[in-house]
Amino acid sequence: MNIHEYQAKELLAKFGVAVPKGIPAMSVEEAVAAAKQLPGPLYVVKAQIHAGGRGKGKFKELGPDAKGGVRLAKSLAEVEAHAREMLGNTLVTVQTGEAGKQVNRLYITDGVDIGKEFYLALLVDRATSRIAVVASTEGGMNIEDVAHETPEKIHTVTIDPATGLMPHHGRVVAKALGLSGDLARQAQAILAGLYAAFLGTDAEQIEINPLAVCPTPEGNKLYVLDAKVGFDGNAMFRHKDLLELRDTTEEDPAELEASEFDLAYIKLDGNIGCMVNGAGLAMATMDIIKLNGEFPANFLDVGGGASKEKVTAAFKIILKDPAVKGILVNIFGGIMKCDIIADGIVAAAKEVNLSVPLVVRLEGTNVQQGKDILANSGLPIVPANDLGDAAKKIVAEVRAVA
């Protein structure tokens, strides 16, 4: 589960992380009122969508010469003008794809001078089963570009869960960022706050880009100027307060519907819909479709104990994608029985008035009963003997009707 930047900053501030003052706004009037509460005279108006690259993004409705989703304002009038242009319009960034995302929320923050920008992130390192701290002096840039072009500028430190964050971790990170003296101590304090927030919220990712040195009358200060936070969805039952931060308007409608039926669904760009039980089998199914020259339209794992209702819901979700020209069902009946799945497939195909080719491969418990149900259904379901056979048949069927 992801949250907006303003929510992330408010959350991190509770753990002692230094962030500039900012106020969210849902309307032009709220944006102006928020700016009036800030010191000024410099403000930052930031579009709030679940995607990076907002500053370099473009609004579909405003033309190629319009400014992006992060803008400086030197007066209340400019805040109002920026808010009017952003709210309700569609921001396209490198992460949204061509469809973009509609901006429904803004974040008005206090403008600060920036002396130097850094990158800092905490992630789950699955290879070591530890939290990894990733630091770079190249803040304000796409970290993927830095990793590709100058990988030596990215430093990673893993934290042993048995000991937790130790003072030497903070010193290593400060050194990696080239900080010393008071700034090094500030960096260590921010890292401690981020680590506490990571554990305390069951986070999967906390990304700070940029972490900036900002000159102030009291001396140089380190501030978190942008934050991206994502949580482990499986742990949200422990965090009812965090669930309240969820903005469902930022989520794909099909993926949101799938979550209501406990289906793992992710939309992709291909034309063959997939319904599989088990994440590994789903990945293999997508791979073999590509091996045969076509592309999967989705990842969809119905899980180990799917019912007729769940299978029907899965079919409906797949068919809501107009790009789908055929469906491949690949089921291994371990916990799940093939005859129950077959009943669900037949019921779903009849209910949705299936109009695209359907290839089904069943294997496992009660497989013959399942195949008999499909064969006697009166529906044009194409049976497959194995995964390779299934992939070849669905590709052939799709190309035959193209």
From TrEMBL:
<comment type="subunit">
    <text>Heterotetramer of two alpha and two beta subunits.</text>
</comment>
<dbReference type="InterPro" id="IPR013650">
    <property type="entry name" value="ATP-grasp_succ-CoA_synth-type"/>
</dbReference>
<dbReference type="GO" id="GO:0042709">
    <property type="term" value="C:succinate-CoA ligase complex"/>
</dbReference>
<feature type="domain" description="ATP-grasp">
    <location>
        <begin position="9"/>
        <end position="55"/>
    </location>
</feature>
<feature type="binding site">
    <location>
        <position position="117"/>
    </location>
    <ligand>
        <name>ATP</name>
    </ligand>
</feature>
<feature type="binding site">
    <location>
        <position position="46"/>
    </location>
    <ligand>
        <name>ATP</name>
    </ligand>
</feature>
<comment type="pathway">
    <text>One-carbon metabolism; formaldehyde assimilation via serine pathway.</text>
</comment>
<feature type="binding site">
    <location>
        <begin position="334"/>
        <end position="336"/>
    </location>
    <ligand>
        <name>substrate</name>
    </ligand>
</feature>
<keyword id="KW-0479">Metal-binding</keyword>
<keyword id="KW-0436">Ligase</keyword>
<dbReference type="InterPro" id="IPR011761">
    <property type="entry name" value="ATP-grasp"/>
</dbReference>
<keyword id="KW-0816">Tricarboxylic acid cycle</keyword>
<keyword id="KW-0460">Magnesium</keyword>
<dbReference type="Pfam" id="PF08442">
    <property type="entry name" value="ATP-grasp_2"/>
</dbReference>
<dbReference type="GO" id="GO:0006099">
    <property type="term" value="P:tricarboxylic acid cycle"/>
</dbReference>
<dbReference type="InterPro" id="IPR005811">
    <property type="entry name" value="SUCC_ACL_C"/>
</dbReference>
<feature type="binding site">
    <location>
        <position position="209"/>
    </location>
    <ligand>
        <name>Mg(2+)</name>
    </ligand>
</feature>
<dbReference type="InterPro" id="IPR016102">
    <property type="entry name" value="Succinyl-CoA_synth-like"/>
</dbReference>
<comment type="function">
    <text>Succinyl-CoA synthetase functions in the citric acid cycle (TCA), coupling the hydrolysis of succinyl-CoA to the synthesis of either ATP or GTP and thus represents the only step of substrate-level phosphorylation in the TCA. The beta subunit provides nucleotide specificity of the enzyme and binds the substrate succinate, while the binding sites for coenzyme A and phosphate are found in the alpha subunit.</text>
</comment>
<dbReference type="InterPro" id="IPR017866">
    <property type="entry name" value="Succ-CoA_synthase_bsu_CS"/>
</dbReference>
<dbReference type="GO" id="GO:0006104">
    <property type="term" value="P:succinyl-CoA metabolic process"/>
</dbReference>
<dbReference type="GO" id="GO:0005829">
    <property type="term" value="C:cytosol"/>
</dbReference>
<protein>
    <recommendedName>
        <fullName>Succinate--CoA ligase [ADP-forming] subunit beta</fullName>
        <ecNumber>6.2.1.5</ecNumber>
    </recommendedName>
</protein>
<dbReference type="GO" id="GO:0005524">
    <property type="term" value="F:ATP binding"/>
</dbReference>
<dbReference type="GO" id="GO:0004776">
    <property type="term" value="F:succinate-CoA ligase (GDP-forming) activity"/>
</dbReference>
<dbReference type="GO" id="GO:0000287">
    <property type="term" value="F:magnesium ion binding"/>
</dbReference>
<feature type="binding site">
    <location>
        <position position="112"/>
    </location>
    <ligand>
        <name>ATP</name>
    </ligand>
</feature>
<dbReference type="GO" id="GO:0050074">
    <property type="term" value="F:malate-CoA ligase activity"/>
</dbReference>
<dbReference type="InterPro" id="IPR013815">
    <property type="entry name" value="ATP_grasp_subdomain_1"/>
</dbReference>
<comment type="similarity">
    <text>Belongs to the succinate/malate CoA ligase beta subunit family.</text>
</comment>
<comment type="pathway">
    <text>Carbohydrate metabolism; tricarboxylic acid cycle; succinate from succinyl-CoA (ligase route): step 1/1.</text>
</comment>
<dbReference type="InterPro" id="IPR005809">
    <property type="entry name" value="Succ_CoA_ligase-like_bsu"/>
</dbReference>
<feature type="binding site">
    <location>
        <position position="226"/>
    </location>
    <ligand>
        <name>Mg(2+)</name>
    </ligand>
</feature>
<feature type="binding site">
    <location>
        <position position="277"/>
    </location>
    <ligand>
        <name>substrate</name>
    </ligand>
</feature>
<feature type="binding site">
    <location>
        <begin position="53"/>
        <end position="55"/>
    </location>
    <ligand>
        <name>ATP</name>
    </ligand>
</feature>
<dbReference type="Pfam" id="PF00549">
    <property type="entry name" value="Ligase_CoA"/>
</dbReference>
<dbReference type="GO" id="GO:0004775">
    <property type="term" value="F:succinate-CoA ligase (ADP-forming) activity"/>
</dbReference>
<keyword id="KW-0067">ATP-binding</keyword>
<keyword id="KW-0547">Nucleotide-binding</keyword>
